[in-house]
Amino acid sequence: MNIDSDKVLKTLNPRKVWVPVVLGIGFVVAMMLLDKDLTADKLLLISDAGGGPMLLALLIIFCRDAGYIYRIRQISGKQLSWVSSLFVIILWEFASAVTPSVVGGTAVAVFILYKEGIKLGQAVAYAMLSAILDNMFFVVAAPIAIFLSQGQAFPGIAAVNFEFGGSLEAVFYISYALIAVYTFAMAFALFVKPRAFKWLLIKATSIGYLKRWRHGAVNRGNEIILASRQFKGKSLKYWVSISLATLFVWVARYFTLNAVISAFADLTFDQHMLVFGRQIVMWITMLISPTPGSSGVADILFPQFFMVFLADYTLIAGMLWRMVTYYPYLILGALVLPRWLQRVFVKKK
User: Fold this and answer.
1) CA of 245: how far to CAs of 63, 71, 170, 281, in Å?
2) For residue range 9-47, what is the model confidence (pLDDT) as tens digits?
3) What do you get for the CA distance between the two ends of the chain, in Å?
4) At a CB cut-off of 8 Å and minimum separation 6, what does 43 contact?
5) Of the four listed, 25, 27, 198, 203, which is most buried by Cβ atoms within 10 Å?
């Protein structure tokens, strides 16, 4: 991979880094202002939030990010230093926040890993493995959440519909099916038959209109083969450590909302588990969102899933949830990105 440092620096001008941040925050603020339910009285309800649970939410986020840093360092076989791992995770979260959920920040992660000194084949492998582990959590956890909640993981509001058609449950199952197929296809390609997967890509792009993507298919196939080689002979300890880290970061991610809701309402253990299960369902539904960081879609779905626990506090709790889980990565990423560009391009010239 030949990268022109000056061109990249010019394209990612620090002054331009704030553009997606401003646009992302502006989009959500506009939706809030257009919300007829947003009144001064509703905003004042923030004073009722319990300080302890909100501090707990921030602590959980810190622990979650620490888990991500640990996981990417373990995945890389400790090729990444702790500082490099910190940069990778902050910028990866930033990329995820400013791109549609359906796109994600994986492609950006490959570039970041590459510029942190990881070979291209390894960078592709580590980013792919991270995505597979995350998606596998959804694939396994969603059926468990639905089963344990006895169907209550879906809100009991039949009127939840989307402009592109279909009920909430229909959209969820479509999104879940797409994630499952993608995850198992990538796992098969990465761990079982990488060359067979490349052959399928080439054959698929040998048909009529699809021929225009043949060159890209060959490149993707080669990347899969290179990536597959990185994980041959890895020890059981390696797989257990990154799997447990994945479980930890996603449990922490979801319990952040449990803490936010607890700032306004007293939840029983069963209610905590139901909130946790509903987040899994909501998150999978949001993964096909076309908006940056699922903005808008998350704000629409949140009341449908959690109003039963929050009542009049639903709007303000939703705002606080987004404030502690979304906006910090926009701002932190915008602050860190210029320093990272200086670090990996200017100092390495």
Assistant:
1) 11, 6, 31, 21
2) 444 444 454 455 555 555 555 555 555 566 666 667 777
3) 16
4) 316
5) 198
The string of DSSP letters for 243-305 reads HHHHHHHHHHHHHHHHHHHHTTS---HHHHHHHHHHHHHHHHHHTT--SBTTTTHHHHHHHHH
Alpha-carbon gap, residue 285 to 175, rounded angstroms: 6
Query: Which residues partner with 100 through β-bridges?
Result: 292
- What's the DSSP call for residue 324? H
Count the residues in the chain.
349
Q: What is the pLDDT of residue 152?
A: 85
Ranges under pLDDT 50 in the chain:
1-15, 17-18, 158-166, 293
pLDDT of amino acid 7: 43
Residue 178: strand, helix, or coil: helix
- pLDDT tens-digit readout, 48-75: 888 899 999 999 999 999 999 999 999 9
Buried b (16+ CB within 10 A) or exposed e, 291-319: bbbbbbbbbebbbbbbbbbbeebbbbbbb
Instruction: Dump the DSSP string for 96-164.
Output: HHHSBTTT-SHHHHHHHHHHTT--HHHHHHHHHHHHHHHHHHHHHHHHHHHHHTTTTTS-S-TT-B-TT
